[in-house]
Amino acid sequence: MAGNLDFSLFTFHFSLKSSTFALMFTTTLLDWFAINGRDLPWRHTRDPYAIWLSEIILQQTRIQQGMDYWLRFMQRWPQVENLAEATEDEVLRMWQGLGYYSRARNLHTAARQIIACGGFPTTIEGIKQLKGVGDYTAAAIGSIAFGLPAAVVDGNVYRVLARHYGIDTPINTTQGKKVFSKLAQSLLPTDQPAAFNQAMMDFGAIQCTPTSPKCVVCPLQETCEALRTGRIEELPVKEKKLTIQTRRLSYIYIRCKGKTAIHRRRAGDIWQGLWEPYNGDLGSGRCTLVCKDVKHVLTHRILLADFYLLETDTPPALPDDYIWVKESDLDQYALPRLIEILLERLPH
To answer: Is the pLDDT of residue 16 over 70?
Structure first.
């Protein structure tokens, strides 16, 4: 299908195959899910707090890694009230290693929103009012926790629908988001929204994978447009890629009588609210190079860090926002993953 067709023409085109085509897709997907769906701990509850927590953690995170964090969060803060009572530093420390720390700050803010509202919101619009919750997350929580008939649309859903229906409208455009959202919603069985949404997620993650999808054993192979036309590798379509920028950082670990200096990063840059060693110039002749050009990859940039050690008995003059802490207490502060990597190379 041409990418510039509007949704009305799109729906008209596929209506020629009758509603039986859509029903067959949905039924086949649910049957597949009943046998192949992933057994995940948050799928054994209807608790909106546990489900919301899993969705926030799994944004930009692999399930295996995210599961460990979900279990730790649920053990430390089993109810939303417990999370709301925690400090931001405690939440950031628990989140440490997951990256995208704005998720942790939003999680903490939203927990306090929920308490202020008297409980977890039970409508899609209400859920979307929570800090850090967008259309996808609201639909996932609403459908799974409350049975609301809202279809999720994420990378897995885009891929499954684009291939099965042969849609080449770019998924990262306004038009593309509209087309796929309406299509997903039209396929959603209102009596089984949770099962359908989870089936779409799992089908994209297990069966219709980005590379080497299991087309030979796919239950939808007879109706898959991309398979029929040989366009599996071409779909879904994305417009131009984002430019990846490289940024250089230089840190000095100051060791002074069992203490070191750190400061909290401010808003408007990466790692807001996290702590880091001194980032500046104290005279290269006084410092020892620990490691150079340590590479750390973020979504839209590559970081290259140099790391120096300054051992002194006299505390150097530092900006006012630096504090001195015991070296043995550093693990009590939430640090970016890159800083953890640098500290691992520090001689003792």
So the answer is: no
